[in-house]
Amino acid sequence: MTHDQNPAAAVVELGPAECWRLLESQRLGRLALVDASGEPRIYPVNYATGDSVLYVRSAEDAKLRYLRSRPAVAFEIDGEDAGDRWSVVVLGHAFRVDRDAEIRRTRATGLRSMSPAPKPYVVRILPRSVAGRRFTERPEGGEEDPLRARILRPSDESLPTSARSPHPIAGLAPRGGAPH
Predict the structure, then answer these.
(1) What residues pair up with 94 in beta bridges, in sequence order?
(2) Do residues 18 and 4 touch, judged by C-beta distance below 8 A?
(3) Rounded to two decimals, what is the model's pTM?
(4) What radius of gyration, in Å, describes the C-alpha atoms of the chain?
(5) Tens digit of pLDDT for each residue in 124-158?
(6) Could you tell me if 14 and 131 are in contact, meaning their C-beta atoms sit under 8 angstroms apart?
(7) Torsion sign (Cα): 65, 76, 21, 4
(8) What would the pLDDT profile of 56-110 be if each residue is shown by its tens digit?
(9) CB environment 126-163: b (16+ within 10 A), e (fewer)
(10) CA within 13 Å, CB half, 1
């Protein structure tokens, strides 16, 4: 196991090397950016890695327009292996690649789009931070809903009479489907 912390912990934070290993093992992720009105947008994109940078292909579309004015992005992948679930999030800035030499280097990464629409442009995501988490999925039928234990429901006996649940009157159904 390549976890950077105690593997017995419920959620394990992954170190940068493990995050990059996972990023290099995948080809589909989600690019989150902010549109011109300030609303978040998420796009599924094919990507490749090279020299600690992420590359995606794009058409002359909304993604490129949004990135010109707001280059801050988030990029996320997730998956499972050996019974573990994991997620990696990259925060950084994205820019259209316009230097021929860098465009040629991206070919070596195997970067290609699976979209039927032509994607002639390359976008570089320069990471500011890379973080990941791993956890073992809880078995179905396992522990009860964790929020249930946090909901405080005092017993009727501990409440003043005016705050207690009403007792049903024999022969009348409670209003609003309230429980008895």
Answers:
(1) 125
(2) yes
(3) 0.72
(4) 25
(5) 999 999 999 999 877 666 566 666 556 666 677 77
(6) yes
(7) positive
(8) 999 989 899 999 999 999 999 999 988 899 999 999 999 999 898 888 888 778 8
(9) ebeebebebeeeeeeeeeeeeeeeeeeeeeeeeeeeee
(10) 15
Cα–Cα distances in angstroms (integers) from residue 108 to residues 26, 77, 83, 104, 177, in the given order: 16, 22, 32, 7, 65
10 CB neighbour count, 10 Å cutoff: 8
Shortest CA distance to 56 belongs to which of 124, 8, 115? 124
Ramachandran angles phi, psi of 16, nearest 5°: -55, -40
Look at the block and give the residue holding tokens 């009403």. 166
Place of tokens 């465009």: 103
CA-based max dimension of the chain = 84
Query: Do residues 60 and 43 lie in contact, with contact meaning Cβ atoms separated by under 8 Å?
Result: no
Tokens of 160: 């003043």
